[in-house]
Amino acid sequence: MEIKWIEDFIALARYQSFSRAAEFRNVTQSGFSRRIQSLEQWVGADLIDRSGFPPTLTPAGRLFQEAAEDILEKLFDTRAIIRTEQRMAGKGLQIAAGHTIALSFLPAWLKTLSAHFGEVRARVIPTNVHDSILMLVNGNCELMFAYHHPELPLHLDPARYQHLTVGVDTFMPVCRPNERSAPAFRLPGTANHPLPLISYTETSYFGRCLALLLGQATAAPALQLHYESDMAEVLKKLVMEGEGVAWLPRSSIIAELESGELVPAGRSEWHLEVELRVYRDASNRSEFLETLWGHIRAASQPSR
């Protein structure tokens, strides 16, 4: 039996909807249903009455809900005590962030904190979006940084997980210049000469961003997949070597654009604006985190 099965069950009892509970738990509906079934097999009884709509708890389900909520509360309270003892002493932060954010945004952002808070010891864990969310939900970090687009939201309960917008980035196509300093590969390309695309895996967040952008295009560009990776840093290296065109966050290529080593491969119609957000678990009442969150909020407000 796994703790996440109990958390799934409690979410289903709250929302009375498999689809809404699955969205809240950041899992596919089919995967969510399988986990509920696994829990029922472990208990040895049906916990959910699926004969009507919305689904309701069976008598066994109501009995199990009471025990499950009590057990989880005690487990999480105990874990919080242990983790508090294991945290870095003083002003310490554990931060989860995407690889690109960890490289291009966080170093300068963390440096600005010292001017307001003195020495802040930060442990940055670069990871993908899915694992970052798991770290936040499981209490393994105080802050999580991630990109956001309205049509590609992160499925986090806004009542528990607060967020602030700390920046805006541009997802844009770039390539090496030719001898005339013009793009070696210019969108949209032609059917006879499709552009070599250095792309992301479909399941990565940037892969979903690219799919959204291309799906909104008035005319599909002529692209031929050349390389694929789930890390923007890999795509950037391949583009720098002249292997093709790739969509990259502007923040990760500012120096290369200014020096002319990379140039835009298309006009602004091929750009996608994304927010850079920081998230926190509102139930974490650390005094330093509360003070830091207030500072981030004040710094993120537009000046008048």
Fold and architecture overview:
The chain has 304 residues and is α/β, with parallel strands linked by helices. Among the domains are: 3-85, Arc Repressor Mutant, subunit A, CATH 1.10.10; 169-274, D-Maltodextrin-Binding Protein, domain 2, CATH 3.40.190.10. It contains eleven helices and eleven strands. Strands 3, 4, 5, 6, 9, 10 and 11 form a seven-stranded mixed beta sheet that branches. The model has no long low-confidence stretch (mean pLDDT 89).
Kindly summarize this structure in a few lines:
The protein is α/β, with parallel strands linked by helices. Among the domains are: 3-85, Arc Repressor Mutant, subunit A (Orthogonal Bundle); 169-274, D-Maltodextrin-Binding Protein, domain 2 (3-Layer(aba) Sandwich), CATH 3.40.190.10.
Proportion in β-strands: 15-25%
CATH superfamily of one domain: Periplasmic binding protein-like II
What is the fold-level CATH name, i.e. the topology of one domain?
D-Maltodextrin-Binding Protein, domain 2
What is the level-2 CATH architecture name of one domain?
3-Layer(aba) Sandwich
Low-confidence stretches: none
* Order of helix and strand elements from N to C terminus: HHHEEHEHHEHEEEHEHEHEEH
Number of helices: 11
Family: Belongs to the LysR transcriptional regulatory family.
Protein name: LysR family transcriptional regulator
InterPro entries: LysR_HTH_N (IPR000847), LysR_subst-bd (IPR005119), WH-like_DNA-bd_sf (IPR036388), WH_DNA-bd_sf (IPR036390)
GO molecular function, one term: DNA-binding transcription factor activity
